[in-house]
Please model this.
Amino acid sequence: MLDAAARRPEFYLGADEPSHARTLPCTPDSVAIARRLVAAALARWEMPEELADRARLVVSELATNALVHARTCGASIRVTVTRIEDDHVQVAVTDLDRRPLAPRHADPDDEGGRGLDLVAALSLRWGCERRHWGKRVWAELA
Model:
């Protein structure tokens, strides 16, 4: 027999809630949790799988950037997915690093440095909002 914790879904997502968020530790495992949160929210809202695929990829890039570049690793990040319209969502990752984003140009031989280019290519629009305690990087997809 399964105990209560084993039967409980990873995320409780109310059907009528327009936004879901989770605070996660600054660890590599949090990227996969962020993807699952976004996937669960879009499935709950009955959004197309193609949109969910792009949203999972975008949140992976945003969360990875926060983990790799934020000076506050060891603290936390906050992942939010918000339903804007029936076929339009925003995913966001907030971290406690006050430094602005520093997009860079990746050379063809570079193994990294293309994350924000990928976010821009998959999103309708994206941006970064600075806060007095950190920043929130977001992307809108439809």
The CA atoms of residues 105 and 111 lie 12 Å apart. The chain has a mean pLDDT of 86. The domain at 22-102+111-141 is CATH 3.30.565.10 (Heat Shock Protein 90).
